[in-house]
Amino acid sequence: MNNKMTEKTVVVTCAAPATVRRAVDDGLDGAGKAVFLDDVPAEKRGETLASAAAIMSFFFNKEVREEEYPLLENVALFQSISTGLDFLPFRSMPKKMVLACNAGGWAPQIAEHTVALLLALARRIVPLHNDLMKGVFSRHAYSPASLRGKVLTVVGYGGIGRRTAELLRPFGMQIYALNTSGRTSDPVHFMGTLKELPEILPETDVLLLSLPLDKHTRGLVGKRELDLMKKNAILLNVARAPLVVEQDLYEHLKANPEFQAGFDVWWKEPTWGGGDFALDYPFLELPNVVGSPHNSNRCENDMEDATRAAAANVAAFFSGEKIGGVIRREDYIE
C-alpha cells in the first residue's frame, strides 16, 4: 500500500521501543502517521488523544486515564495489540468507536505452544519425567497415545484455532471446527457453530478452546459438557480460564484420571491486573494436568510481529477495506 492519502493520526498508547515503532510504521505502510503517547508532553496529551483517527493500545485501561475517555469521542477505530478484550471498560468507551482485537496477531507462537501442551499430555511427558527424577524407570507406568486418526474439535476457529489445526493436520488428526458463522473454506471434517458443541463432544478426542471470553461463552464448558466427552479426552485452554467452570473441571479430572487438561490461562492470574496467581483447587497436584503461566504468546520478535499485524489492520480500515477482529461491545456488557 504505497498510495498516499490524507494523513491520519494513529496514537499508540503503550510503551514502544524502537523495534516496535518500526513495526508500527511497517504495518501502516504510509496509510497514517503514528504518534506515540509516551513522546507527548503532558500539556499536549489531551489534544493528541482528541485528534486521533485511531488508537492503538495494549492495556487500554492502564494506558489511558478514565477521565480522558471523553476525549476519544471522535476516534473512529480502537485497535488492540492484544487479542482478548474482555478486560476493556466497555461501558465507558465512546459508543461510536469501532473496536477491533488483534485477530491472528499472536497466532503462530500460540498455536505452537498449544501443540506442545497437547504432545506433552498425549505422550505423558510430565509424569514420566517426574518418575525419572524420583529414580523410577518404568516404560509401562502410563499409556502414551497417538494423535493419528483422533478428532480435534476447535472451539473458536479463528486465527489461533486455524493455525493450530494447520499444524495438527500432518499428525493425521480430523478437524472439527466451530465458529460464529458456521462457515470456512478450510478442509475440515465438520463445520458448525457453538450450538453444535454438545452434538460433537462425544466424538471429540481433543477439545481446544481458542475463542473470546464474553457473556455468551463464560462457563461454556461445565459438568454437562465434560460428562459428554470421552473418559480419555484432552481439554486444552489457551484463551481464557473462565470459559470453563473451575470446580466442575477439577472434580472431573479427579474422578477420571485418564482425562487430561492443558492450560496456559488461569482463573486468578496477574496478567490482566487481577492480583496474584492463585488456585481455588489444587490442579497442579494432579498428574493429568500440564500448565504454563500464560506465556504462549511469547517468542522472539513477538511484540514486533503482533504490533505490525495490528497496524496493518488500521491501514486497511483507513483504506476502507474490510478489517479483521471487529467485536460487538454488547457481547461483553451484562
Going by CATH, the architecture of the largest domain would be 3-Layer(aba) Sandwich
Characterize the overall form: elongated
CATH class of the largest domain: Alpha Beta
User: How many angstroms separate the termini?
Assistant: 40 Å
Mean pLDDT: 96
Q: Can you offer a commentary on this structure?
A:
- By secondary structure, the chain is α/β, with parallel strands linked by helices.
- The protein has two domains: 9-105 and 300-331, Rossmann fold, CATH 3.40.50; 107-291, 3-Layer(aba) Sandwich (Rossmann fold), CATH 3.40.50.
- It is built from ten helices and twelve strands.
- The strands form two sheets. A seven-stranded parallel β-sheet has the order 8-7-6-9-10-11-12, with helices on one face. Strands 2-1-3-4-5 form a five-stranded parallel β-sheet, with helices on one face.
- α1 runs parallel beside α10 (302-318) and α4 crosses α6.
- The two termini are 40 Å apart.
- Residues 1-5 have low confidence and may be disordered.
Q: Which helices and strands occur, and which strands form pairs?
A:
Blueprint: E1 9-12, H1 18-28, E2 33-36, H2 45-50, E3 54-57, H3 60-63, E4 77-80, E5 98-100, H4 107-122, H5 125-133, E6 151-155, H6 159-168, E7 174-178, E8 190-192, H7 197-200, E9 206-209, H8 223-228, E10 234-237, H9 246-255, E11 260-263, E12 289-291, H10 302-318
Parallel strand pairs: 1-2, 1-3, 3-4, 4-5, 6-7, 6-9, 7-8, 9-10, 10-11, 11-12
Helix pairs in contact: 1-10, 4-6
